[in-house]
Predict the 3D structure of the following.
Amino acid sequence: MRATILVRPKQGILDPQGQAVEESLRHLGFSVGEARVGRVVDLEVDAVDIVQARAEVERMCEQLLANTLIESYEIEISG
Amino acid sequence: MSERARAPKIAVVVFPGSNDDTDAVWALGALGADPVLVWHADERLPDDLGAVVLPGGFSYGDYLRCGAIARFSPAMTAVARFADEGGPVLGICNGFQILCEAGLLPGVLRPNASLSFVCRDVAVRVERVAAPFTSRCERGQRLVIPVKHGEGCWFAPPELVRELERNDQIVLRYAGDNPNGSIADVAGVLNDRGNVMGLMPHPEHAVDPLLGSGDGALLLASLVDAARDRVPVSV
C-alpha cells in the first residue's frame, strides 16, 4: 500500500521559508497571497488494509515524520 | 582525593556529522575534566561518568529536521538513562536540537527567522545560576559567546514559554542582539529537573580570551564542577 504524507507548518507558526518563496514569486510578477512551505513523504507500507496502514503511518508521523509542536500532517493512503 | 575525582570523566558523544566534538574535548580537558569520546553506536556510556556533552555539528546531515534522526542513536538511549538518573547533560547547538527532538528538553529549534546562517559573537544574559551549568556565573551576568547555526530559532507555544519562565527553566537569553528570532530571546533552556540543558551559543569556542572571549569557560567549568560532585571518590 502506498502512503503520501503532507507535513506543513502549523497555522500561526512563522514560516520564513514560505515568506521567502512568496516574496520571490511577487518579484517574478506573480500575484500571490501567503505561501507556506512544507514537506512530502511518499512511502510503501506493509499493511493488510487501509485502516491498518493509516494507523501505522499515523504512528510514524507522531514519532518521527512530523514534530507536532510546530507541524501538522495529512495522510493519504492508496491501494 | 583520587586522580579520578580531580578530573571527572565527561562523555562527548560523536554522531556522524558532529564537528565540534574535538573542540569540546579540548575545552573540557583544559578546564580540568577527563573527556572521553563516545561513538553514537555505543550502547553504553563509560563507567564512573560525571556528565555528558552532545556537541555541535550536523548529525545525519540534518535530514528531516535537525536532530530528528540522531535521537535514535543507541548512545542516546544511554544518555536518556543517564539523564533519568540525574546525570548532567549539556547539548550545544546540534546537541540542543537533538535533546529537543528526543523530548529531553522542551521546545524545538527552527530555521533562523532571517533564513541566513549566522556566525558571530553574541551576548547572552544568565537568568539562572542554580543549575549545574551556570553555578560559576552571577545572575544577570553578560557573557559573550559565538553562535554559528542556521536553525537556532527556539520555539515553544506561549503557554509553555510562560510555564518555563515560572519554573525558572530559561537559563540564557540573548541580550539585545537576537541572532535567530527565538521566542522570548531564549538562548538556552533547562529541563524541569534542572539536570539537562541545551544552548545555541558555543561555550567550547570561548574558553580563551586570546580567541576573543573566555566567557564560555564559566559554563563548561560549572559543568566540570557538577561532574566532579557526581563522580564518587575512588579509594
Summary: Chain B has a mean pLDDT of 94. The longest helix of chain B spans residues 216-230. Chain B is about 25% helix and 25% strand. Helices of chain B lie at 3-6, 21-30, 74-84, 94-101, 158-166, 216-230.
